[in-house]
């Protein structure tokens, strides 16, 4: 029973990490019709900002609080200066975000010298439940992810900003004719997606340590999760993240880790083959 509980908690905590990354990626994909291939590097930036604050002698949580804010600003600027010019050509936009990600990744590699850098957990120790001991920080990640999901849902479904986002998503031309600044909506949406990735990087860096290729693995899993969940709704990417997160965390308990990664992608490809719109693509908020 103890082993089963620990395995379930590991699956839940890893799934929470994937949800944070996929949430931002899915918002951008649903809103703009492009996949942001720099999303993994936004995760990396969030982790680096946290490390930078710690290396300067500041508490780790200061870097964690600053990471989503700073990465979100960078996302807003990049959208306005570069990405906005390529919405009419989604393939070019995706190549552009890939190039941006490559620049960010190699810049961070140069700054940390290609090493693995450790950042301490701001909340150490464990939570004891009977004879079981679970990481206090991983539990905190799960709680923060749940709160962020609720906040994003309320933002998109219960606010005037969310109404304008949904109007722009459904019919950009009509939204512009109604006086909605679609340029600002696109920029703000991209910034939110980037900020969520930055938050994910800040939260996971004590768990996975900081290295230049940190974001690559999560980008691939996030990309697959968005396809499995479906584009066009808030719920779709989260559902896909849940499926991919659970599979990615559960399969290594029964097969070799490398085989588990391959099996996850094979299962995802088979699913997308028979249900190309995903689990809940295009339905609901």
What secondary-structure arrangement, pairings included, does this model have?
Blueprint (H helix, E strand, L loop, with lengths): L1 H31 L6 H17 L4 H22 L8 H23 L13 E4 L2 E4 H23 L1 H11 L1 H6 L4 H27 L5 H16 L5 H16 L6 H18 L11
Antiparallel strand pairs: 1-2
Helix pairs in contact: 1-5, 1-8, 1-9, 1-10, 2-3, 2-4, 2-8, 2-9, 3-8, 5-6, 6-8, 9-10, 9-11
Please explain how this structure is put together.
By secondary structure, the protein is mainly α. Helix content is 74%, strand content 3%. The chain is built from 11 helices and 2 strands. It has a two-stranded antiparallel sheet. Strand 1 and strand 2 form a beta hairpin. Helix 9 (214-229) packs across helix 10 (235-250). It is globular and about 60 Å long. The chain starts with a helix and ends in an 11-residue tail after the last helix.
Can you summarize this structure?
The protein is mainly alpha-helical. Helix content is 74%, strand content 3%.
Strand content: under 5%
Count the E strands.
2
Rg from Cα? 19 Å
- Sheet bearing the most strands, described? 2 strands, antiparallel
Tally of contiguous helical segments = 11
Largest beta sheet: what is the strand line-up?
1-2
Mean pLDDT: 83
What is the 3D shape? globular
Instruction: Enumerate the spans where pLDDT stays under 50 for 5 or more consecutive residues.
Output: none
State the helical fraction. Answer: over 70%
Order of helices and strands: HHHHEEHHHHHHH
Cα separation of the termini: 38 Å
The class by helix and strand makeup works out as mainly alpha
